[in-house]
Amino acid sequence: MKKIIFTTFFAMALSTSVALAEQNFTYWSMWTKNENQALVLAEAIKDFEKDTGIKVNVQWAGRSNIKKLAPTLNARTTPTDLVDQSIGRTYATLIENDQYEPLNDVWGTKIPNETKTVEQVILSSAGSQLTKDGNKFMLPYNITSSGYWYDAKNVPGVAGNEPKTWDEFMALLQKRKDMGKNPIALDGDITGYVVWAFAEILIKYYGAGNVLKLTLDKTGDSLKDPRILQAAQKYEQLVSKKFFGAGYDSSKFPSQQTKWAQRQRDFIYNGIWILNEVAKFTPADADMRYMPMPAMDDSSYSSAETNMFGFVIPKKAKNKENAKKFIAYFMQKKYMDAYATQTLSITSRTDAAVDPQFEDLQATIKNAKTAHGFIDGIQTYNAGYYNKVFGPLVKDLVYGKIKAKQFQDKWVNESVKYWKFN
Known about the structure:
19 helices; 422 residues; four-stranded mixed β-sheet; 14 strands; single chain; alpha/beta; 46% helix
């Protein structure tokens, strides 16, 4: 009888401990505790715990959260049930190696206290970038994009009359140069900044995803296309006409973007975060505006960069279902509105609030026929090639070490050589 009683008691205790274990999950956030992003998330977490009874064990780990997670992926269970990061930082560690939990069910679930599903409110073009083998691997909440930024008070007459074509843009830059201005800021020691605008020019010629495909061609034949030369010639104009501000190829980041904020440069190609980065250098009367990359010709593709940050659940997470409940909960409009306004960013919800200075950018994202990732995904999906071939070659072009035709020829040769050994 004692044995039966003990066994029954042990079973009840085990059942209770399991039930308690299920009423929590662990979240390693990419944000640090005092960042505005963390403050919005913390408010949502507090409400979620109150509404559901599920405890969120949050660690404000910062940008190294994925790096911290990586060594634990071979364990029986991972120490966290939820992380958030950019596609680029999660892909190589979690997605490429199938160390993620599919989130198709979350995309299809109804958002708490609302009538629509998650998928119905998210930017429609996001799904294709966040799918692998038919499975959604991320639920995005933040979208970044890029373009040319300028202070309308510094460059009068442009707002509402932005150049629509590359030729119009070149004419504007020449006019500014003739006035003694430095038309474009570029921190040339940052490879991503050097490559960024050129990749966008290539996308105008090839369309979303097709520039990435160029880098995956092991024969190099596709790189002999005349459009490669045309794109290189366009970018080379900025060098030959001396449109980049003095010191772009020798100064150290963030020297040039600081000069731009202080009205010593007219335009800068950068991401949405640039306004936050230079805020302390920006004049009080600044009127910051966004301008998309102009069309190269009448056949240019319409595509908008949509680099996403969002939630990923590790494959071996212990409390997947609770983590899924939270990320669907966070997609409520009130939290997306708060995130957009308090962090000066654009969220993945198309009906969320947006700061007036980002309205043009949001419209570009919504109206584009297709979407593409940062540098068309080359840095994410073909990182070795980006670091050893693409990045260095574009740098040589921008530094004036090679001309457009030399760039194309070298790209063909370096690409074939790379794929021979990789």
